[in-house]
Amino acid sequence: MDPHEVIIAPVLTEKANLLREKENKYVFRVDARANKLEIKQAIRELFSVEPVACNVVRVKGKPKRMRRQPGRTSSWKKAVITLPPGQSIDIFESA
Predict the structure, then answer these.
(1) Do the domain assignments include residue 10?
(2) Are 38 and 4 in contact (CB under 8 A)?
(3) Does residue 93 fall inside a structural domain?
(4) Furthest C-alpha separation in the chain
(5) What's residue 94's pLDDT?
(6) What's the pLDDT at 91?
(7) Is 72 contained in some domain?
(8) Which InterPro entries does UniProt cross-reference here (predicted)?
(9) For residue 40, is pLDDT > 70?
(10) What secondary structure does DSSP assign to 22-79, as a single string?
(11) For 38-51, what is the mean pLDDT?
(12) Is 89:26 a contact under the CB 8 Å cutoff?
């Protein structure tokens, strides 16, 4: 897979910001078909850093309503990338 297809977007939440600041971990929304090896390779190519670890979580969609019609949000896959001390990803630093 192309690295731009694997990594969809960074996750910018309070919890993700705390992980980034305290533990040097970065959170991304990734393609549901991607595995850990593909995600690590995409991070290497896109950001020129060497990830130490990659943890993957499937986030289940939440039930929602549109007026009286029941529905749910889409399920998605989240990757938490751990970097060694001294390395960082620039897109998070400028945000």
Answers:
(1) yes
(2) no
(3) no
(4) 51
(5) 61
(6) 79
(7) yes
(8) Nucleotide-bd_a/b_plait_sf, Ribosomal_uL23-like, Ribosomal_uL23/eL15/eS24_sf
(9) yes
(10) HH-EEEEEE-TT--HHHHHHHHHHHH----SEEEEEEEPPPEEEETTEEEEPPPEEEE
(11) 96
(12) yes
Provide the pLDDT for residue 27. Answer: 97
The total domain count for the chain is 1
Q: Does residue 91 fall inside a structural domain?
A: no
d(CA 61, CA 84): 32
pLDDT of residue 1: 84
Q: How far apart are CA 33 and CA 15, in angstroms?
A: 25
* Of residues 94 and 10, more confidently modeled: 10
- pLDDT on residue 38: 97
Length of the chain equals 95
Domain that residue 51 falls in? 3-85
First to last CA, the chain: 27
